[in-house]
Amino acid sequence: MKIQKYFLFSIIPAFMASCAGTQTQQQAKPQTPATNVEMKELPMPKHRTDIYSLDMATQLTASISGSTNSANANIIIGGRDSLSMTVRGPLGIVIGKLYSNPQYFLFYNALGNEVLEGAPRAESIAKATQMALSYNDIMYLMRGEIP
Q1: What's the CA gap between 141 and 48, in Å, rounded?
Q2: DSSP 3-state of 2
Q3: pTM over 0.70
Q4: Phi/psi of residue 28, nearest 5 degrees
Q5: Dihedrals phi, psi of 13, to nearest 5 degrees
């Protein structure tokens, strides 16, 4: 009986005191948007004048029919009117070369020893490089511009 009284008078008040210090969770009040916020449009470069020529070394990875291949490419652009891309495979062997301007493109496939040429539309370039991008799309992408 003494143990029960001891328990009731010492342990239970200690337990209650320890629980009294805990905080109850309060529901967060929804934030109202500030009315004095000024929206600013960030300027996106339409046609960049600070980039005239650009030389890039890239690594390409392509998965076709479950087979993954990788290659390195050097891409050179001059202004907005010329593009050159050389794709190299293992051991630096040239796989293909692409030359293009806004009116004409030429692609040499060294593996198949064939040449593709024509207007630099997305369909034509896709036959050569598997990238369905037109000349202008490639230039926008490389120069960080918006169409």
Answers
A1: 12
A2: helix
A3: no
A4: -70, 135
A5: -65, -35
